Amino acid sequence: MACAAQNGIRMEKLFDNSDFSRYRHCKTLFVKGCLMPLAEGEASTYRRSEYARLKAELFKLLPGGVDCISDEAADSFRMFVEALADGGKYMRNVCFVAGAFCAYVDEVEVTESGLVVYYTKTTPKISDSAVAKAAYIAEIAARSGHPLAAIRIATCNRNYVRKGAIEPEKLFKITDVLPRIDEARGVVNAFLAEGERLIAEPAVREMSVKCERPDKCEYFDSCAGVSRPCILDFHGIDGNAMFRLFESGVKSLDDLLDNAHLLRPAQAAMVRMYLTDDTLHVDIPRVRAFLEKLHYPMCFLDFEACQPALPLYDGTRPFMQIAFQYSLHVKRTEYSELEHYQFLPKKGVDPRPEMARRLFNQIPHGACVVVFSKGLECKVLNQLATRFKDYAHKLNAARNAVCDLQELFASRAVYSKAMLGSTSLKAVYPAMFPGDKSCDYSALDVHNGAEALRLFTRAQYEDDAKSAEHYAQLYTYCGKDTLSLARMVMLLQTVTGAEIGQRKLRTNRRRRREKCRDK
């Protein structure tokens, strides 16, 4: 192992592509990620992820060749050197090693002008980050004694439409970025110097401005040295402004309240609103007006959607948004029980045709559709109605009948300190039902939409038993969302004394009176 124990801290791996990316994002995150071991079984390099394996399987840009994949960077490099000495022309999953650093690439081709490296990016264009990564790879390859003649990055063609088996030559656009790597040479040299310094003296840097949201960094607590929640957990104020306050010594929520004069008037008002007491505040007239817009039959609908870089189904493009799951709770009358319907497609099958058919049959005629943040739900209903004309009438009606419960929280008609300024479902439900574990996401394997997407994608390529396990977790997660919506509506109805359907009833009465006058 190139990195030895220093000052009682054992460096268990070489610095690799992931460490370089982490360094560019946050120097503290990079340092602490090297000093603190990852959880057992967690991949330490990008190539070991399930998605990277899928790319290697589906998008072999070069024919044949020697596969140099190994759990050890040194072994991968050794296999590459041996294949090169034996006259090999193509090598896959290659790792270049130079001292304490290594760099992974998808493919290496030996040409008359020298070594050509390929790797894929699941983005439609070549970003500054991709150029910086290419510069790092070129430097490590050169230091290992194998300078590169070209670094070719394959990016996704957003206009590619899948028809049958994926055609890599059409899906990917390949660009040589070697001429651009001088742009990033400075950050590469700084990273190499930092890595060598860390081996000699593993000291932790201070926090950086990248810490504006602590839930994005696994090392935040040890860096900040504060108890949670702190002011950076508060969602009502711009992250950079909040971080500046944090740096000045305003760290706890009580500190934030005491220093509200440092904020803009609107921000200070928001802080006082949320931090003065622990009660649930409900603007009864506004909430009652919202609830009276609702009517029976009432549906509570939630979709989960993905935007895969690699199109999963015929007729889809890279990054095209596709709903793959829904949960639907239906309450037909004031006194009826909730009925629950849910859907996930069979593995490898386009979910949209069956999803449209089931929604057509399961959403009652004339239903009011309650959602939380209506953007996705309205978009999916519109897409399904446009694509499947036989179901268009009811799906369009459902889209037009959408009522967004999040509006009550975004407008501060309902709020409490426990929400910490957030209007997400994961924040408002626990605040309204403190201690209720029936809709608690912490015990689940899926905690949010991003994790649901990753689990669904993995399920498409794993064996049936593992896929069934993932599907069970997804069903449990999505069902909790719509059950939460139903319970919040019922609680607000109880608190405000609102009668569901009163607006519709008054409208119908007015129309009848107008008809009578016309006669």
Outline: globular
Count of helix runs: 20
CATH class of the largest domain: Alpha Beta
Structural class: alpha/beta
> Average pLDDT, to the nearest integer?
81
Describe the structure.
With 519 residues, this protein is of the alpha/beta class. The chain has three domains: 5-200, Lambda Exonuclease, Chain A (Alpha-Beta Complex); 210-275, no CATH class; 284-503, Ribonuclease H-like superfamily/Ribonuclease H (Nucleotidyltransferase, domain 5). It is 43% helix and 16% strand. The chain contains 20 helices and 15 strands. The chain has helices at residues 17-25, 27-35, 50-58, 73-85, 128-143, 168-171, 185-200, 220-224, 239-247, 253-258, 265-275, 284-293, 352-362, 374-387, 392-400, 406-410, 425-432, 449-459, 464-496, 502-518, and strands at 5-6, 9-10, 66-67, 90-98, 101-111, 114-121, 148-156, 172-176, 281-282, 298-306, 322-331, 339-343, 368-371, 402-404, 414-415. Strands 3-4-5-6-7-8 form a six-stranded mixed β-sheet. Strands 12-11-10-13-14 form a five-stranded mixed β-sheet. The protein has a two-stranded antiparallel ribbon with strand order 1-2. Helix 12 (284-293) crosses helix 19 (464-496) and helix 18 (449-459) runs antiparallel to helix 19. The N and C termini lie far apart (93 Å). The model is unreliable at 1-11 and 37-54 (pLDDT under 50).
